[in-house]
Design goal:
Elements lengths: L1 H12 L2 H23 L5 H21 L4 H10 L3 H17 L3 H13 L5 H14 L9 H4 L7 H15 L3 H8 L10 H21 L12
């Protein structure tokens, strides 16, 4: 039975979102950029903004196709605005992960998190990736995201926070509190709910094992 629990715990550590990012990062980046560009209206300001988006998109696209995409993207990102810069850094971090350079990828994700000019959703996404890839994860980096129920990444953050609570401090009660609302939550992916349910099952058992058994009453005088 313990082998089953260990396998579940290990499976929980393998964030499916990372795999999706590795496989579909180009598509995700393109979709984000298209949304940025398509939001422009017919006014002069928004036309200028759309033109700038197109120019900066072209910079990143050209850099991505160069012989040394990581260096080229980092150079291009320096001259782009916050949203495109964050997208560029996410792309470079993905390349680093594919090359096995986890520490460098984690540092890039942290750079996005610390960039207050970057779009909040991209910063929140970077929080998730950072916590998954840093050697010594600090749950504090998830705190702003856990408080933001409107973020599309809040449920991913709750899963990560639950795993951290259980595996770093063995605080199974806290871990279970992060997982409590998944079952009845709307607009949460079924796969996330499955993972939350599996984790809840494991942590309830571990919590029961960690709780001292009640001391039997002394009946010696009877």
């Amino acid at each position: 039975m313990s082998d089953i629990f260990r396998e579940v715990d290990e499976a929980m550590q393998q964030e499916k979102m990372v795999k999706l990012w590795k496989e579909y990062s180009s598509t995700i980046i393109l979709a984000i950029i298209i949304l940025l560009v398509s939001s422009a209206s017919t006014s002069f300001y928004y036309k200028w903004k759309a033109d700038r988006n197109a120019t900066e998109t072209a910079k990143l696209s050209t850099a991505l196709q160069s012989d040394n995409p990581t260096e080229a993207i980092l150079i291009a990102a320096k001259d782009t605005k916050a949203s495109h810069k964050a997208i560029g850094l996410l792309t470079v971090a993905n390349i680093k992960l594919q090359d096995g350079k986890t520490d460098e990828a984690a540092a890039l994700y942290k750079q996005i998190v610390d960039d207050k000019k970057a779009p909040r959703n991209l910063r929140d996404l970077a929080r998730i990736f950072h916590i998954q890839n840093v050697k010594e994860p600090n749950a504090e980096i998830l705190a702003p995201l856990l408080k933001n129920d409107k973020s599309p990444w809040v449920w991913h953050a709750r899963l990560e926070a639950a795993v951290l609570s259980a595996h770093t401090t063995q605080d199974y009660a806290q871990a279970l509190s992060y997982l409590a609302d998944f079952k009845d939550a709307q607009y949460v992916a079924f796969s996330l709910k499955q993972r939350a349910e599996a984790l809840s099952h494991v942590y309830k058992i571990k919590q029961a094992k960690a709780t001292p058994a009640p001391v039997a009453a002394d009946k010696g005088g009877e």
